[in-house]
């Protein structure tokens, strides 16, 4: 089985455990492909989280570079047991983040094999830190409709500029309002459809992200309404646990088959390393699972 999105306490202060402990747990559970995708650095002191108090911007940048070194060490070390992919997860707080990511990708070309394209902020405010901060972000743009539209516009900019191989938690914008239906917000629905079609056109995979299930959702990201839009337009799906430490590797994967079956999902995809860079200069390609995903033996042991 596969996951394309993960973090460790070694390189992400709101996660736990070392990167190697995450890898060892993925091996223990029988993952065949596991993506290591720590957050890129942030570039303004104001954007650091409370748990990062005392860190400097220079230390954050150094931490990410150490992640790349350690991830490639683990990839080589455990190659006989698991196929590790070394990637990153994007941030878009201000234009500075996009400009800096351009520079980072050029500097580390060949080391960053794929991108998880995500948005976690709006108007400089985190939307996935706690409910109070989320509501502050909503209020900063004059209500729910404007908030959703701004989120999808930011997401579109990440998609357009970097063409991430994996679209991360497509509807994180309703993290604290999981029953929200985009049909009630036509302007936002139009924007997310635009994003989905754009990502399909350049060949992205949309992650089925199990982390929503540990955040009081009844489904993974994306919710049913957006999943149906993806499927109606021929979008390709991949799995992610979005683990934040070894304790969350594969967490709630056991709930995914039922969700996928009810939605009528026929195929799942995953990324694999490719010596030949893709159109965007990164060393992965998308591969369809040959085995019927619903009968994969991994499900019998997943939690």
Automatic annotation (TrEMBL):
Which keywords appear in this protein's UniProt record, sorted alphabetically?
Amino-acid biosynthesis, Histidine biosynthesis, Hydrolase
Q: What class of enzyme is it?
A: hydrolase
Residue ranges annotated for the PHP domain, each copy included: 4-210
Range of residues in the leader sequence = none
One Pfam match, given by its short name, reads PHP
- GO process terms (BP): L-histidine biosynthetic process
Instruction: Quote the catalytic activity from the record.
Output: L-histidinol phosphate + H2O = L-histidinol + phosphate
Q: Which pathway does it operate in?
A: Amino-acid biosynthesis; L-histidine biosynthesis; L-histidine from 5-phospho-alpha-D-ribose 1-diphosphate: step 8/9
Q: Does the keyword Signal feature in the UniProt annotation?
A: no
Tell me which NCBIfam families the record gives: hisJ_fam
Q: What is this protein called?
A: Histidinol-phosphatase
Q: Which organism is it from?
A: Favolaschia claudopus
